[in-house]
Amino acid sequence: MSRRIDHFVLKVDPILCDGFGHCHELAPELVHVDEWGYPIINEQPTSSSDVALLKSAKLAVRGCPRQALRIERISGPT
Ligand code: SF4
Description:
This protein has one domain: Alpha-Beta Plaits (2-Layer Sandwich). It has helices at 22-26, 51-63; strands at residues 4-12, 31-33, 39-41, 46-47, 69-77. The chain is α+β, with helices and mostly antiparallel strands. The termini are close together. Residues 12, 17-23, 39, 64-66, 68-69 line the site of iron/sulfur cluster.
């Protein structure tokens, strides 16, 4: 029997993003900003069992004034 493991990645829509970097303030562990203030997001999937990081990602999604962020869930067998 295989066990499923769930991960997530934070995704940004570069068309919607205004580059003020609010997401970095809300989720600094997941989002860095470039020299113009546009987000650079860690593309490595993060385990959904990391409650603190998932909470940060949700805060960033809710706090994005342009609704440019979303959480993409990734599921698969271990
Ligand atoms: S908070 Fe939203 S609009 Fe602002 S930089 Fe981050 S993704 Fe872009």
